[in-house]
């Protein structure tokens, strides 16, 4: 019996669509939210998303529809055909890839993660217990276990299927309302999932953060913990999208082959990483994914492309579609050789920052941005943490930040939460001459 995506494709072709890709993504998620050390809400959700790309005589349409039943297929197809015909011709139009392609087949998915329910509450208890033992009074956060299935069919004969699963805990500990710490545990296997460690780390940061004092504005050397550095690195990698580069909304536009960062910095998009949080076999065009070096020892080596942006650039797709907007799948920052416990000593004098949120841009083209420092922030002198501080905001430039990376720790942490949407494997970093302003509100 034909599945939903196959029926939609068939009807699109019957109604005159020349080319089409239809993707059905099924996402099943079990979640537990908690506050004041206790679970507050447990829920499950299942969302099916139907994504349709269609083209007729160089006119293209891309749209997504949630929880579509077979009763509405005819109506949706009619709307898609109408919108495709009424779309303006695109100068970036290119035919969808035909293949044949060779795909990796060794992907391992731990399906039992998607069936976890009551076990999530016990994981919460582990994290809360660890934070208390570390000195925090209370904890809050969310844990979710996710299972995804993706099916892609195209008018060129592609028929692909892929699974994925992950379990992610985002834990925040409070010693007082002002003294907070956050850590995460993110994994595609239960073997590597460690809620106790996440709770302990968050609790330790919260306890260290007691009695924070305001910090003066100025330029500081900064030791960034993995959470905040992952945020910065995910931003940098995302700016390598061929789409952003070509519309000149990236500070990396026109810099291919140039030195854009410190020689300590190598950033890779690696969806081929076994059991990586962003492991992916094929992209939204059905092209096999690949390992792509974005920045190598400070030099910009590659942009990330789909078929459209690759055509404009005169290169091949890197397997990073988004049909309109290519993007990274699984960001990996090559680690350094400094032990994490030696990073404060290596910093010498400056700020140790553990987390941030609300990263915003004043100018995408130049990379001018600001982000609010949250949770543990500390003043360091003579290689020792002297006191907790508060009210910090980084107000700087991505180009300058990555150029002043002096050292990286020797361990990578898998990071994914709402401020780091693309899975990022990041170390800690020491960055010189970072501009700090006051955060208000």
Q: What is the number of strand segments?
A: 20
Q: What characterizes the major β-sheet?
A: 6 strands, antiparallel
Give the overall shape, derived from the CA principal axes: globular
SSE order in H/E notation? Answer: HEEEHHEEEHEEHHEEEHEHEEEEHEEEE
Describe it.
By secondary structure, this protein is of the alpha+beta class. The protein folds into two domains: 200 residues, PmbA/TldD superfamily (PmbA/TldD fold, 2-Layer Sandwich); 119 residues, no CATH class. The chain is 21% helix and 39% strand. The strands form three sheets. A six-stranded antiparallel β-sheet has the order 3-2-1-4-5-6. Strands 11-10-9-12-19-18 form a six-stranded mixed β-sheet. Strands 8-13-14-16-20 form a five-stranded mixed barrel. A hairpin with a 4-residue loop joins strand 13 and strand 14. Helix 1 crosses helix 2 and helix 3 packs parallel to helix 4.
């Amino acid at each position: 019996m034909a599945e939903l995506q196959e029926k939609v494709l068939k009807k699109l072709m019957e109604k005159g669509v020349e080319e089409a890709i239809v993707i059905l993504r099924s996402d099943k998620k079990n979640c537990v939210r908690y506050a004041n050390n206790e679970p507050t809400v447990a829920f499950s959700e299942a969302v099916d998303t139907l994504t349709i790309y269609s083209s007729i005589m160089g006119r293209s349409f891309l749209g997504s529809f949630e929880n579509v039943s077979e009763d509405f297929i005819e109506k949706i197809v009619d709307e898609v055909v109408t919108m495709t015909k009424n779309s303006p011709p695109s100068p970036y139009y290119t035919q969808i890839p035909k293949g044949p392609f060779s795909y990796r087949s060794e992907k391992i998915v731990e399906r039992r993660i998607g069936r976890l329910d009551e076990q999530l509450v016990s994981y919460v208890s582990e994290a809360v217990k660890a934070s208390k033992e570390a000195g925090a009074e209370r904890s809050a956060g969310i844990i979710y276990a996710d299972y995804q299935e993706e099916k892609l069919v195209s008018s060129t004969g592609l028929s692909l299927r892929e699974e994925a699963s992950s379990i992610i805990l985002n834990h925040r500990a409070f010693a007082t309302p002002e003294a907070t710490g956050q850590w995460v545990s993110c994994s595609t296997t239960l073997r590597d999932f460690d809620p106790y460690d996440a709770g302990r780390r968050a609790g330790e940061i919260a306890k260290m953060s007691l009695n924070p004092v305001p910090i003066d504005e100025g330029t500081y050397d900064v030791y960034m913990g993995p959470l905040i550095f992952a945020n910065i690195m995910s931003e940098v990698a995302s700016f390598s999208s061929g789409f952003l580069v070509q519309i000149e909304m990236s500070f990396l536009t026109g810099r291919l082959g140039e030195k854009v960062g410190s020689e300590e910095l190598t950033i890779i998009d690696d969806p081929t990483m076994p059991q990586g949080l962003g492991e992916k076999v094929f992209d939204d065009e059905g092209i096999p994914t690949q390992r792509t070096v974005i920045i190598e020892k400070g030099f910009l080596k590659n942009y990330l492309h789909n078929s459209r942006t690759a055509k404009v650039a005169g290169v091949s797709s890197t397997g990073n579609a988004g049909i309109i907007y290519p993007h990274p799948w699984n960001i990996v920052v090559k680690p350094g050789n400094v032990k994490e416990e030696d990073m404060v000593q290596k910093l010498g004098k400056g700020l140790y920052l553990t987390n941030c949120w609300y990263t915003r841009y004043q100018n995408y083209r130049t990379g001018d941005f600001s982000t609010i420092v949250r949770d543990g922030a500390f003043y360091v002198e003579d290689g020792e943490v002297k006191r907790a501080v508060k009210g910090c905001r980084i107000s700087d430039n991505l180009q300058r930040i990555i150029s002043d990376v002096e050292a990286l720790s020797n361990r990578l942490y898998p990071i994914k939460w709402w401020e780091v949407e693309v899975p990022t494997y990041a170390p800690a970093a020491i960055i010189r001459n970072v501009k700090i302003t006051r955060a208000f509100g």
